[in-house]
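Sequence in, structure out. Go.
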Amino acid sequence: MGKVNEVVNVGIVGCGRIADVHSPGYENSNDARIYAVCDANADIARARKAQWNAVKSYTDFTEMLSDPDLDAVEILTPQNFHEPMMIEAANAKKHIAVQKPMTIDLKSADRMVKAADDNKIIFKVTDNYGFYPPFIFAKKLINDGVIGTPHSLRIKFISGGSGGWEIPPGSWEWRMKENEAGRGIQTFDHGHHLWTTAWYLLGDVERVKSWIDSIDGIIDCPAMVMWKYKDSKKYGVCEYTHADEMEIPSKYYANDEWFEISGSRGLIKVSRCTGNIHGSEPIVSVFTGKKWEHYSDIKSDWVEGFIGSTKNFIAAVKGDEKPLLSPQQGREMLKLNLAVSKSSRHRREVYLDEMDAISPEKFTRKKIAQELREKYPSKTFFSSFVGEGSAKYAPQAIELTRDLVGRFDASKVMEWKAEIGIHILEQGKSQEKKFTAIFNNGRLDLIEDRLPEDSTLVIECPAGTWAAILLKKKRIETAFIQGKIKITQGKPEEALKLRAAFGL
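Output:
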Protein backbone atom coordinates (compact mmCIF):
# COMPACT_ATOMS: atom_id res chain seq x y z
CA MET A 1 0.00 0.00 0.00
CA GLY A 2 1.43 3.36 -1.05
CA LYS A 3 2.03 6.31 1.24
CA VAL A 4 -0.83 8.71 1.87
CA ASN A 5 -0.95 12.26 3.13
CA GLU A 6 -0.98 12.71 6.91
CA VAL A 7 -4.47 14.12 6.46
CA VAL A 8 -6.00 11.77 3.88
CA ASN A 9 -7.29 13.63 0.81
CA VAL A 10 -10.60 12.09 -0.27
CA GLY A 11 -12.62 12.73 -3.41
CA ILE A 12 -16.41 12.33 -3.28
CA VAL A 13 -17.70 11.03 -6.61
CA GLY A 14 -21.43 11.48 -7.12
CA CYS A 15 -22.73 14.39 -5.06
CA GLY A 16 -26.44 13.58 -4.93
CA ARG A 17 -28.78 13.02 -2.01
CA ILE A 18 -26.83 10.18 -0.35
CA ALA A 19 -23.71 12.36 -0.17
CA ASP A 20 -25.43 14.32 2.62
CA VAL A 21 -24.85 11.42 5.02
CA HIS A 22 -21.29 10.71 3.86
CA SER A 23 -19.91 14.20 4.43
CA PRO A 24 -20.48 14.31 8.25
CA GLY A 25 -17.78 11.67 8.75
CA TYR A 26 -15.17 14.23 7.66
CA GLU A 27 -16.36 17.10 9.83
CA ASN A 28 -13.83 18.09 12.50
CA SER A 29 -11.60 15.19 11.47
CA ASN A 30 -7.84 15.37 12.04
CA ASP A 31 -7.27 12.32 9.84
CA ALA A 32 -9.06 13.12 6.57
CA ARG A 33 -10.83 15.81 4.60
CA ILE A 34 -13.03 16.14 1.55
CA TYR A 35 -10.33 17.36 -0.80
CA ALA A 36 -12.23 17.12 -4.10
CA VAL A 37 -15.73 16.56 -5.45
CA CYS A 38 -16.85 15.18 -8.79
CA ASP A 39 -20.30 15.21 -10.36
CA ALA A 40 -21.54 15.16 -13.93
CA ASN A 41 -23.57 18.28 -13.10
CA ALA A 42 -21.11 21.18 -12.84
CA ASP A 43 -23.52 23.29 -10.75
CA ILE A 44 -23.90 20.52 -8.19
CA ALA A 45 -20.13 19.97 -8.09
CA ARG A 46 -19.46 23.66 -7.47
CA ALA A 47 -22.16 23.86 -4.80
CA ARG A 48 -20.80 20.83 -2.95
CA LYS A 49 -17.24 22.20 -3.18
CA ALA A 50 -18.39 25.35 -1.41
CA GLN A 51 -20.55 23.49 1.11
CA TRP A 52 -17.79 21.11 2.17
CA ASN A 53 -14.86 23.54 1.79
CA ALA A 54 -13.24 21.22 -0.74
CA VAL A 55 -10.13 22.30 -2.60
CA LYS A 56 -11.20 21.21 -6.08
CA SER A 57 -14.29 20.27 -8.07
CA TYR A 58 -14.53 18.20 -11.25
CA THR A 59 -17.04 16.98 -13.78
CA ASP A 60 -14.54 14.51 -15.28
CA PHE A 61 -13.70 11.49 -13.10
CA THR A 62 -10.53 10.64 -15.03
CA GLU A 63 -9.24 14.17 -14.59
CA MET A 64 -9.85 13.99 -10.84
CA LEU A 65 -7.94 10.70 -10.61
CA SER A 66 -4.91 12.29 -12.27
CA ASP A 67 -4.44 14.61 -9.27
CA PRO A 68 -1.31 13.31 -7.44
CA ASP A 69 -2.50 14.82 -4.13
CA LEU A 70 -5.67 12.73 -4.13
CA ASP A 71 -5.33 9.66 -1.85
CA ALA A 72 -8.75 8.02 -1.94
CA VAL A 73 -12.23 8.19 -3.44
CA GLU A 74 -15.73 7.45 -2.23
CA ILE A 75 -17.86 6.30 -5.17
CA LEU A 76 -21.50 7.22 -4.56
CA THR A 77 -22.82 6.74 -8.08
CA PRO A 78 -25.57 4.30 -9.22
CA GLN A 79 -24.51 0.67 -8.79
CA ASN A 80 -24.23 -0.14 -12.50
CA PHE A 81 -21.38 2.42 -12.70
CA HIS A 82 -19.44 0.98 -9.76
CA GLU A 83 -17.26 -1.52 -11.62
CA PRO A 84 -15.75 0.72 -14.34
CA MET A 85 -15.22 3.60 -11.93
CA MET A 86 -13.71 1.39 -9.23
CA ILE A 87 -11.31 -0.32 -11.64
CA GLU A 88 -10.21 3.02 -13.09
CA ALA A 89 -9.59 4.37 -9.58
CA ALA A 90 -7.71 1.20 -8.58
CA ASN A 91 -5.48 1.47 -11.64
CA ALA A 92 -4.79 5.06 -10.60
CA LYS A 93 -3.61 3.67 -7.22
CA LYS A 94 -6.36 5.42 -5.25
CA HIS A 95 -7.94 3.76 -2.22
CA ILE A 96 -11.65 3.17 -2.70
CA ALA A 97 -14.92 3.02 -0.78
CA VAL A 98 -17.89 2.15 -2.99
CA GLN A 99 -21.50 2.52 -1.91
CA LYS A 100 -23.46 -0.68 -1.49
CA PRO A 101 -24.43 -2.80 -3.35
CA MET A 102 -20.90 -3.52 -4.56
CA THR A 103 -22.04 -3.96 -8.18
CA ILE A 104 -24.73 -5.76 -10.19
CA ASP A 105 -23.42 -9.35 -10.57
CA LEU A 106 -20.78 -11.67 -9.19
CA LYS A 107 -18.48 -11.69 -12.23
CA SER A 108 -18.35 -7.92 -12.01
CA ALA A 109 -17.53 -8.22 -8.29
CA ASP A 110 -14.70 -10.63 -9.05
CA ARG A 111 -13.16 -8.18 -11.51
CA MET A 112 -13.32 -5.45 -8.86
CA VAL A 113 -11.68 -7.64 -6.22
CA LYS A 114 -8.91 -8.54 -8.68
CA ALA A 115 -8.30 -4.87 -9.52
CA ALA A 116 -7.89 -4.07 -5.81
CA ASP A 117 -5.53 -7.00 -5.27
CA ASP A 118 -3.46 -6.25 -8.37
CA ASN A 119 -3.01 -2.62 -7.38
CA LYS A 120 -2.56 -3.32 -3.66
CA ILE A 121 -5.05 -0.65 -2.60
CA ILE A 122 -7.67 -0.56 0.16
CA PHE A 123 -11.11 -1.41 -1.19
CA LYS A 124 -14.20 -1.19 1.02
CA VAL A 125 -17.91 -1.64 0.34
CA THR A 126 -19.80 0.97 2.34
CA ASP A 127 -22.82 -0.27 4.29
CA ASN A 128 -23.61 1.89 7.29
CA TYR A 129 -25.69 -0.72 9.16
CA GLY A 130 -22.61 -2.53 10.48
CA PHE A 131 -21.67 0.75 12.20
CA TYR A 132 -25.12 1.77 13.47
CA PRO A 133 -24.68 2.10 17.28
CA PRO A 134 -27.84 0.16 18.28
CA PHE A 135 -26.66 -2.81 16.20
CA ILE A 136 -23.16 -2.60 17.65
CA PHE A 137 -24.72 -2.70 21.13
CA ALA A 138 -27.07 -5.58 20.19
CA LYS A 139 -24.16 -7.59 18.80
CA LYS A 140 -22.21 -7.10 22.03
CA LEU A 141 -25.20 -8.36 24.02
CA ILE A 142 -25.40 -11.43 21.78
CA ASN A 143 -21.66 -12.11 22.01
CA ASP A 144 -21.79 -11.71 25.80
CA GLY A 145 -24.43 -14.44 25.99
CA VAL A 146 -27.13 -12.19 27.44
CA ILE A 147 -29.89 -13.95 25.46
CA GLY A 148 -28.19 -17.36 25.38
CA THR A 149 -27.99 -19.17 22.06
CA PRO A 150 -29.51 -17.01 19.27
CA HIS A 151 -32.28 -18.79 17.37
CA SER A 152 -33.90 -16.21 15.12
CA LEU A 153 -33.90 -12.69 13.73
CA ARG A 154 -37.06 -10.91 12.69
CA ILE A 155 -36.98 -7.68 10.67
CA LYS A 156 -39.95 -5.43 9.90
CA PHE A 157 -39.52 -2.91 7.09
CA ILE A 158 -42.13 -0.34 6.14
CA SER A 159 -42.05 2.44 3.57
CA GLY A 160 -44.59 5.22 3.30
CA GLY A 161 -46.14 7.44 0.69
CA SER A 162 -44.67 10.58 2.23
CA GLY A 163 -42.20 11.79 4.83
CA GLY A 164 -38.46 12.21 5.00
CA TRP A 165 -36.24 14.28 2.77
CA GLU A 166 -36.92 15.35 -0.79
CA ILE A 167 -35.50 12.99 -3.39
CA PRO A 168 -34.34 14.64 -6.64
CA PRO A 169 -36.04 13.21 -9.76
CA GLY A 170 -32.68 12.01 -11.07
CA SER A 171 -32.26 9.74 -8.06
CA TRP A 172 -35.59 8.05 -8.75
CA GLU A 173 -34.79 7.73 -12.45
CA TRP A 174 -31.77 5.46 -12.00
CA ARG A 175 -33.53 3.45 -9.32
CA MET A 176 -36.43 2.84 -11.71
CA LYS A 177 -33.98 1.50 -14.29
CA GLU A 178 -32.44 -0.81 -11.70
CA ASN A 179 -35.93 -1.95 -10.72
CA GLU A 180 -36.74 -2.78 -14.35
CA ALA A 181 -33.56 -4.89 -14.49
CA GLY A 182 -34.83 -6.99 -11.58
CA ARG A 183 -32.91 -5.25 -8.79
CA GLY A 184 -35.76 -3.98 -6.65
CA ILE A 185 -35.74 -0.57 -4.96
CA GLN A 186 -36.56 -2.04 -1.56
CA THR A 187 -35.52 -5.72 -1.58
CA PHE A 188 -32.26 -5.27 -3.53
CA ASP A 189 -31.06 -1.69 -3.12
CA HIS A 190 -32.24 -1.06 0.44
CA GLY A 191 -32.33 -4.80 1.09
CA HIS A 192 -28.53 -4.85 1.12
CA HIS A 193 -28.68 -2.99 4.46
CA LEU A 194 -30.99 -5.59 5.97
CA TRP A 195 -29.04 -8.62 4.74
CA THR A 196 -25.84 -7.00 5.99
CA THR A 197 -27.47 -6.55 9.40
CA ALA A 198 -28.62 -10.20 9.39
CA TRP A 199 -25.04 -11.30 8.63
CA TYR A 200 -23.45 -8.83 11.07
CA LEU A 201 -25.63 -9.94 14.00
CA LEU A 202 -25.85 -13.71 13.52
CA GLY A 203 -23.38 -14.89 10.86
CA ASP A 204 -23.21 -16.41 7.39
CA VAL A 205 -26.41 -17.36 5.56
CA GLU A 206 -26.78 -20.75 3.86
CA ARG A 207 -30.02 -20.43 1.87
CA VAL A 208 -32.99 -18.14 1.27
CA LYS A 209 -36.65 -18.31 0.22
CA SER A 210 -38.46 -15.18 -0.86
CA TRP A 211 -41.78 -13.96 -2.17
CA ILE A 212 -41.60 -10.49 -3.77
CA ASP A 213 -44.76 -8.78 -5.02
CA SER A 214 -45.84 -5.24 -5.89
CA ILE A 215 -48.97 -3.25 -5.24
CA ASP A 216 -48.29 -0.67 -7.95
CA GLY A 217 -45.92 -2.34 -10.41
CA ILE A 218 -43.02 -0.18 -9.19
CA ILE A 219 -42.35 -0.62 -5.46
CA ASP A 220 -41.33 -4.23 -4.74
CA CYS A 221 -43.63 -4.59 -1.73
CA PRO A 222 -45.26 -6.50 -0.14
CA ALA A 223 -42.51 -9.09 0.18
CA MET A 224 -41.44 -11.80 2.57
CA VAL A 225 -37.88 -13.10 2.78
CA MET A 226 -36.75 -16.03 4.92
CA TRP A 227 -33.27 -17.45 5.39
CA LYS A 228 -31.36 -20.16 7.24
CA TYR A 229 -27.96 -19.53 8.74
CA LYS A 230 -25.01 -21.75 7.84
CA ASP A 231 -24.08 -24.73 10.06
CA SER A 232 -26.68 -23.91 12.71
CA LYS A 233 -30.35 -23.99 13.56
CA LYS A 234 -30.81 -20.24 13.27
CA TYR A 235 -33.35 -18.59 11.00
CA GLY A 236 -34.34 -15.12 9.89
CA VAL A 237 -37.37 -13.48 8.34
CA CYS A 238 -37.94 -10.02 6.90
CA GLU A 239 -41.36 -8.57 6.17
CA TYR A 240 -41.62 -5.72 3.66
CA THR A 241 -44.70 -3.52 3.46
CA HIS A 242 -45.51 -0.28 1.66
CA ALA A 243 -48.13 2.03 3.15
CA ASP A 244 -48.81 4.52 0.36
CA GLU A 245 -51.18 6.57 2.52
CA MET A 246 -48.86 6.76 5.51
CA GLU A 247 -46.38 9.50 6.38
CA ILE A 248 -43.19 8.14 7.91
CA PRO A 249 -41.52 10.30 10.58
CA SER A 250 -37.98 10.41 9.21
CA LYS A 251 -35.13 12.84 8.56
CA TYR A 252 -33.97 10.63 5.70
CA TYR A 253 -35.86 8.22 3.43
CA ALA A 254 -39.56 7.67 4.05
CA ASN A 255 -39.11 4.26 5.65
CA ASP A 256 -38.23 2.64 8.93
CA GLU A 257 -37.16 -0.76 10.26
CA TRP A 258 -37.19 -2.52 13.61
CA PHE A 259 -35.59 -5.79 14.68
CA GLU A 260 -36.03 -8.63 17.17
CA ILE A 261 -33.37 -11.22 18.01
CA SER A 262 -34.61 -14.25 19.98
CA GLY A 263 -32.37 -16.61 21.93
CA SER A 264 -32.57 -19.52 24.32
CA ARG A 265 -32.50 -17.19 27.34
CA GLY A 266 -34.10 -13.97 26.15
CA LEU A 267 -34.64 -11.51 23.34
CA ILE A 268 -33.40 -8.14 22.08
CA LYS A 269 -35.47 -5.48 20.35
CA VAL A 270 -34.04 -2.59 18.31
CA SER A 271 -36.90 -0.17 17.77
CA ARG A 272 -35.64 2.16 15.05
CA CYS A 273 -33.26 2.66 12.19
CA THR A 274 -33.84 4.92 9.16
CA GLY A 275 -36.92 6.62 10.61
CA ASN A 276 -38.61 6.99 13.99
CA ILE A 277 -42.03 5.37 13.90
CA HIS A 278 -41.69 4.21 17.52
CA GLY A 279 -41.09 7.73 18.77
CA SER A 280 -40.03 7.86 22.40
CA GLU A 281 -39.81 4.09 22.89
CA PRO A 282 -36.45 2.80 24.16
CA ILE A 283 -33.90 2.35 21.39
CA VAL A 284 -32.83 -1.13 22.55
CA SER A 285 -34.76 -3.37 24.95
CA VAL A 286 -33.67 -6.69 26.42
CA PHE A 287 -35.85 -9.36 28.05
CA THR A 288 -34.17 -12.23 29.89
CA GLY A 289 -37.14 -14.07 31.36
CA LYS A 290 -37.40 -12.00 34.52
CA LYS A 291 -37.67 -8.39 33.45
CA TRP A 292 -37.18 -5.90 30.64
CA GLU A 293 -34.15 -3.65 30.57
CA HIS A 294 -34.39 -0.58 28.37
CA TYR A 295 -31.61 1.53 26.84
CA SER A 296 -32.36 5.02 25.55
CA ASP A 297 -28.93 6.62 25.77
CA ILE A 298 -27.59 5.05 22.54
CA LYS A 299 -26.97 7.24 19.51
CA SER A 300 -29.65 6.24 17.02
CA ASP A 301 -29.64 8.86 14.27
CA TRP A 302 -29.29 6.98 10.97
CA VAL A 303 -26.32 9.15 9.99
CA GLU A 304 -24.24 7.69 12.85
CA GLY A 305 -23.70 4.50 10.85
CA PHE A 306 -22.30 6.50 7.95
CA ILE A 307 -19.98 8.41 10.27
CA GLY A 308 -18.68 5.14 11.69
CA SER A 309 -18.22 3.66 8.22
CA THR A 310 -16.28 6.73 7.03
CA LYS A 311 -13.97 6.55 10.05
CA ASN A 312 -13.40 2.86 9.33
CA PHE A 313 -12.44 3.68 5.72
CA ILE A 314 -9.93 6.30 6.77
CA ALA A 315 -8.49 4.04 9.47
CA ALA A 316 -8.14 1.27 6.86
CA VAL A 317 -6.36 3.64 4.46
CA LYS A 318 -3.94 4.58 7.25
CA GLY A 319 -3.37 0.94 8.10
CA ASP A 320 -5.05 1.03 11.52
CA GLU A 321 -8.15 -1.12 10.87
CA LYS A 322 -9.51 -3.69 8.44
CA PRO A 323 -12.23 -2.42 6.12
CA LEU A 324 -15.82 -3.45 6.81
CA LEU A 325 -17.21 -4.57 4.46
CA SER A 326 -14.05 -6.05 2.97
CA PRO A 327 -14.16 -6.88 -0.77
CA GLN A 328 -14.87 -10.55 0.05
CA GLN A 329 -17.59 -9.64 2.55
CA GLY A 330 -19.10 -7.22 0.06
CA ARG A 331 -19.21 -10.00 -2.52
CA GLU A 332 -20.97 -12.30 -0.05
CA MET A 333 -23.59 -9.63 0.65
CA LEU A 334 -24.10 -9.19 -3.09
CA LYS A 335 -24.47 -12.96 -3.44
CA LEU A 336 -27.12 -12.98 -0.71
CA ASN A 337 -28.87 -10.04 -2.35
CA LEU A 338 -28.92 -11.79 -5.73
CA ALA A 339 -30.13 -15.05 -4.14
CA VAL A 340 -33.11 -13.23 -2.62
CA SER A 341 -34.09 -11.90 -6.06
CA LYS A 342 -33.52 -15.28 -7.73
CA SER A 343 -35.62 -17.16 -5.19
CA SER A 344 -38.67 -15.04 -5.92
CA ARG A 345 -38.20 -15.26 -9.69
CA HIS A 346 -37.65 -19.04 -9.73
CA ARG A 347 -40.22 -19.77 -7.01
CA ARG A 348 -37.84 -21.96 -5.03
CA GLU A 349 -35.32 -22.07 -2.18
CA VAL A 350 -31.88 -20.83 -3.28
CA TYR A 351 -28.56 -21.84 -1.71
CA LEU A 352 -26.00 -19.04 -1.74
CA ASP A 353 -23.26 -21.41 -2.91
CA GLU A 354 -25.27 -22.27 -6.01
CA MET A 355 -24.77 -18.69 -7.19
CA ASP A 356 -21.17 -19.67 -8.02
CA ALA A 357 -22.05 -23.11 -9.42
CA ILE A 358 -21.89 -23.97 -13.13
CA SER A 359 -25.22 -25.79 -12.86
CA PRO A 360 -27.14 -24.16 -9.97
CA GLU A 361 -30.21 -26.42 -10.08
CA LYS A 362 -28.08 -29.59 -10.13
CA PHE A 363 -25.99 -28.21 -7.25
CA THR A 364 -29.12 -27.60 -5.18
CA ARG A 365 -30.64 -31.03 -5.88
CA LYS A 366 -27.42 -32.68 -4.72
CA LYS A 367 -27.24 -30.44 -1.67
CA ILE A 368 -30.79 -31.27 -0.59
CA ALA A 369 -30.24 -35.01 -1.14
CA GLN A 370 -27.06 -34.90 0.95
CA GLU A 371 -28.80 -33.06 3.79
CA LEU A 372 -31.68 -35.56 3.81
CA ARG A 373 -29.24 -38.47 3.98
CA GLU A 374 -27.49 -36.85 6.93
CA LYS A 375 -30.76 -36.11 8.71
CA TYR A 376 -32.29 -39.54 8.01
CA PRO A 377 -29.25 -41.86 7.71
CA SER A 378 -31.21 -45.14 7.67
CA LYS A 379 -32.74 -46.60 4.52
CA THR A 380 -36.10 -44.85 4.77
CA PHE A 381 -37.66 -42.00 6.66
CA PHE A 382 -40.06 -44.45 8.32
CA SER A 383 -37.33 -46.76 9.56
CA SER A 384 -35.44 -43.72 10.91
CA PHE A 385 -38.54 -42.54 12.75
CA VAL A 386 -39.41 -45.86 14.39
CA GLY A 387 -35.81 -46.35 15.46
CA GLU A 388 -34.88 -49.47 13.49
CA GLY A 389 -31.41 -50.66 14.45
CA SER A 390 -31.03 -48.70 17.72
CA ALA A 391 -30.13 -51.89 19.62
CA LYS A 392 -26.75 -52.01 17.89
CA TYR A 393 -25.72 -48.88 19.81
CA ALA A 394 -26.50 -50.42 23.22
CA PRO A 395 -22.90 -51.40 24.12
CA GLN A 396 -21.91 -47.72 23.92
CA ALA A 397 -24.61 -46.43 26.27
CA ILE A 398 -22.69 -46.41 29.57
CA GLU A 399 -19.48 -44.91 28.21
CA LEU A 400 -21.39 -42.28 26.24
CA THR A 401 -23.20 -41.29 29.43
CA ARG A 402 -19.91 -40.88 31.26
CA ASP A 403 -18.68 -38.72 28.37
CA LEU A 404 -21.52 -36.25 29.00
CA VAL A 405 -19.29 -34.42 31.48
CA GLY A 406 -16.97 -33.44 28.62
CA ARG A 407 -19.89 -32.40 26.41
CA PHE A 408 -21.51 -30.22 29.05
CA ASP A 409 -22.06 -26.61 27.94
CA ALA A 410 -22.54 -24.64 31.14
CA SER A 411 -23.38 -21.41 29.29
CA LYS A 412 -26.67 -22.94 28.10
CA VAL A 413 -28.04 -23.76 31.58
CA MET A 414 -26.23 -21.36 33.89
CA GLU A 415 -29.16 -20.88 36.29
CA TRP A 416 -30.48 -24.45 36.22
CA LYS A 417 -30.58 -26.30 39.54
CA ALA A 418 -31.72 -29.88 39.11
CA GLU A 419 -31.07 -33.51 39.95
CA ILE A 420 -31.76 -35.73 36.95
CA GLY A 421 -31.93 -39.49 37.16
CA ILE A 422 -30.92 -41.54 34.11
CA HIS A 423 -32.02 -45.17 34.26
CA ILE A 424 -30.48 -47.15 31.38
CA LEU A 425 -32.36 -50.43 30.87
CA GLU A 426 -30.70 -53.68 29.94
CA GLN A 427 -30.71 -54.40 26.21
CA GLY A 428 -28.92 -57.35 24.59
CA LYS A 429 -25.54 -57.76 26.27
CA SER A 430 -25.63 -54.24 27.72
CA GLN A 431 -26.31 -54.20 31.44
CA GLU A 432 -28.67 -51.98 33.41
CA LYS A 433 -27.04 -48.80 34.76
CA LYS A 434 -28.18 -45.87 36.90
CA PHE A 435 -26.79 -42.33 36.95
CA THR A 436 -27.58 -39.11 38.80
CA ALA A 437 -26.68 -35.84 37.06
CA ILE A 438 -26.59 -32.85 39.43
CA PHE A 439 -26.81 -29.41 37.79
CA ASN A 440 -26.01 -26.45 40.00
CA ASN A 441 -25.61 -22.97 38.42
CA GLY A 442 -23.36 -24.05 35.56
CA ARG A 443 -21.68 -27.00 37.31
CA LEU A 444 -22.30 -30.68 36.55
CA ASP A 445 -21.55 -33.65 38.81
CA LEU A 446 -22.25 -37.17 37.53
CA ILE A 447 -22.74 -39.93 40.09
CA GLU A 448 -22.94 -43.60 39.08
CA ASP A 449 -25.02 -46.52 40.36
CA ARG A 450 -27.83 -44.60 41.96
CA LEU A 451 -30.86 -42.48 41.13
CA PRO A 452 -31.59 -39.28 43.06
CA GLU A 453 -33.89 -39.54 46.06
CA ASP A 454 -35.42 -36.10 45.55
CA SER A 455 -35.25 -35.75 41.79
CA THR A 456 -36.33 -33.05 39.38
CA LEU A 457 -36.72 -35.69 36.70
CA VAL A 458 -36.06 -39.40 36.18
CA ILE A 459 -35.89 -40.80 32.67
CA GLU A 460 -35.93 -44.49 31.81
CA CYS A 461 -34.67 -45.71 28.45
CA PRO A 462 -33.34 -48.88 26.76
CA ALA A 463 -29.57 -48.80 26.35
CA GLY A 464 -29.67 -48.76 22.53
CA THR A 465 -32.17 -45.93 22.34
CA TRP A 466 -30.26 -43.86 24.92
CA ALA A 467 -26.99 -44.39 23.05
CA ALA A 468 -28.67 -43.43 19.76
CA ILE A 469 -29.84 -40.16 21.37
CA LEU A 470 -26.35 -39.39 22.65
CA LEU A 471 -24.89 -40.18 19.21
CA LYS A 472 -27.48 -37.84 17.65
CA LYS A 473 -28.94 -40.72 15.66
CA LYS A 474 -32.32 -40.12 17.31
CA ARG A 475 -34.04 -37.08 18.76
CA ILE A 476 -35.07 -37.23 22.40
CA GLU A 477 -38.59 -36.01 21.46
CA THR A 478 -38.97 -38.79 18.89
CA ALA A 479 -37.96 -41.43 21.46
CA PHE A 480 -40.53 -39.98 23.89
CA ILE A 481 -43.32 -40.06 21.29
CA GLN A 482 -42.46 -43.66 20.45
CA GLY A 483 -42.63 -44.61 24.11
CA LYS A 484 -38.97 -45.68 24.06
CA ILE A 485 -38.05 -43.13 26.69
CA LYS A 486 -40.27 -42.75 29.75
CA ILE A 487 -40.51 -40.05 32.38
CA THR A 488 -41.02 -41.94 35.65
CA GLN A 489 -40.84 -38.83 37.82
CA GLY A 490 -40.94 -35.08 37.24
CA LYS A 491 -41.96 -32.86 34.34
CA PRO A 492 -41.22 -33.92 30.72
CA GLU A 493 -40.30 -30.36 29.69
CA GLU A 494 -37.24 -30.53 31.95
CA ALA A 495 -35.81 -33.14 29.57
CA LEU A 496 -35.53 -30.48 26.89
CA LYS A 497 -32.93 -28.69 29.01
CA LEU A 498 -30.76 -31.75 28.59
CA ARG A 499 -30.70 -31.02 24.86
CA ALA A 500 -29.33 -27.55 25.52
CA ALA A 501 -26.83 -28.70 28.13
CA PHE A 502 -25.34 -31.44 25.96
CA GLY A 503 -26.20 -30.35 22.41
CA LEU A 504 -28.48 -33.36 21.85
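Check: The mean pLDDT is 90. Residues 8-121 form a domain with the Rossmann fold fold (CATH 3.40.50.720).
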